Amino acid sequence: xxxxxxxxxxxxxxxxxxxxxxxxxxxxxxxxxxxxxxxxxxxxxxxxxxxxxxxxxx
Length: 58
Ligand SMILES: [Zn+2]
Description:
Blueprint: H1 3-8, E1 19-22, E2 27-31, E3 36-41, E4 44-45, E5 53-54
Antiparallel strand pairs: 1-2, 2-3, 3-4, 3-5
């Protein structure tokens, strides 16, 4: 994903910027404030709260 594009993408819950991250299998966008993970499908960020998953606290 283009870094400039990432600047325009914000969390749909808190409207803060997201952190690009990846697991072994796929990329995702992380909100460090809500501890939510948004999937990226075929290069398209899915910024929908019902598609997001909560990040378990360690
Ligand atoms: Zn957020």
